[in-house]
Amino acid sequence: MSYPIGRSGFGVNAAMVRPKRQLRAELYISNPDAKAFYHLLNKQKLAIETELGYLLDWEELPEGRDTRISISLGNCNPEDRNDWPRQHNWLGERLNEFHAVFARRVKLLDPDTWVPDVSQGAEERAV
Q: How many Cα atoms occupy the beta-carbon half-sphere of 119 within 13 Å?
């Protein structure tokens, strides 16, 4: 499920990953500037994770266009109805936190301020 965050190409998503037995809350970026947006947000990583109170998985997904920033609840069975209250509570809290922390940041992002530093691979610099 995807929830709008106030800018096209961005979504706060609830995902179920059955093979890994996990739920995931994520900011998914899917647009032509996804890599630039990802790197601009990554420059705010410390502030974002401090505000959330937990570490995130930062996935550039280099083989494709899109990117993902997420946290997962592991070792759970998304099909176990007896565990749904715990799972849904965890997921609802994370989605609300993601929206609160990312919405204002996403609105301020300008992809033109990011220039990839080709001399260092995936490293970048802001102009």
A: 1
Q: Specify the higher pLDDT residue, 115 or 20.
A: 20
Query: Of 41, 50, 39, 14, nearest to 116 (Cα)?
Result: 39
Domain ranges, ordered by start, for the chain: 2-112
Give the model confidence (pLDDT) of 28-60 as tens digits.
999 999 999 999 999 999 999 999 999 999 999
Coil, helix or strand at residue 4: strand
d(CA 87, CA 81): 10
Entry pTM: 0.88
**What is the sign, positive or negative, of the torsion defined by CA atoms of 54, 103, 6, 114?**
negative
HSE of 87, CA atoms in CB hemisphere, 13 A: 21
Cα separation, 26 vs 59, in Å, equals: 10
Contact 38, 114 (CB under 8 A): no
DSSP states of 12-68 as a string? EEEEEEGGGTEEEEEEEE-STTHHHHHHHHHTTHHHHHHHHTS--EEE--TTSS-EE
65: tokens are: 């266009």
